[in-house]
Design brief:
The chain is of the alpha+beta class. The protein contains six helices and six strands, in the order ααααββββαββα.
Length: 175
């Protein structure tokens, strides 16, 4: 090339050469990530995990409460049929027209809960379902809480005995 042309455009001769020499101050020969970049990625993953895992456990526990609603609905319907025929609520679960695999006079053993029945003077009853778990993480987070419902007075579910968190924190399970 003409040397005069290079001076006119003010480009060094080395830059015009197609076989550029590796310069350690540029990214031309870089083939990996720096330690800082890897640490930032690990930090971001840690933050996302710390937010998502507790929410996951809450969601899983709320889905396990469907067992409570299912049993409560079945017992309520059976108690209504029994009361229609006899005029009082049954204090013995065996007198109801429902069946579960692990079933006794006043206790239904379920997968995640134990349901017990208490009748007051034949005019109302309380169905208490206590969470059962052998998982230490669930026991530490939620404890062996109980879900109670009283019929026919309130017909609402309440959470009690929630040692892992305070009562208000466990009440969100019913929402």
């Amino acid at each position: 090339m003409n040397p005069l042309l290079w001076e006119l455009v003010n480009i060094p001769r080395e830059a015009a050469n197609m076989n550029t020499v590796y310069d350690k101050n540029t990214n031309a020969g870089r083939k990996g990530f720096t330690l800082i970049e890897l640490l930032v990625v690990v930090l971001i993953i840690g933050i996302l995990t710390s937010i998502s895992i507790p929410q996951y456990f809450k969601t899983v526990e709320k889905t396990r409460l469907t067992e409570v609603y299912s049993v409560a609905t079945a017992v309520k319907s059976a108690q209504m049929r029994y009361q229609t025929g006899t005029g009082a609520y049954a204090s013995d679960l065996n007198k109801l027209d429902i069946s579960y695999t692990d079933f006794s006079t006043a206790l239904i053993t379920l997968r995640y809960f134990n349901a017990s029945l208490a009748v007051t003077d034949g005019t109302s009853y309380t169905l208490t379902m206590t969470r059962t778990t052998t998982n230490a993480r669930v026991a530490a987070l939620f404890g062996k809480y109980s879900v109670m419902t009283r019929f026919p007075t309130t017909q609402t579910f309440t959470v009690s005995d929630c040692p892992g968190l305070n009562e208000d924190a466990c009440a969100y399970l019913l929402n």
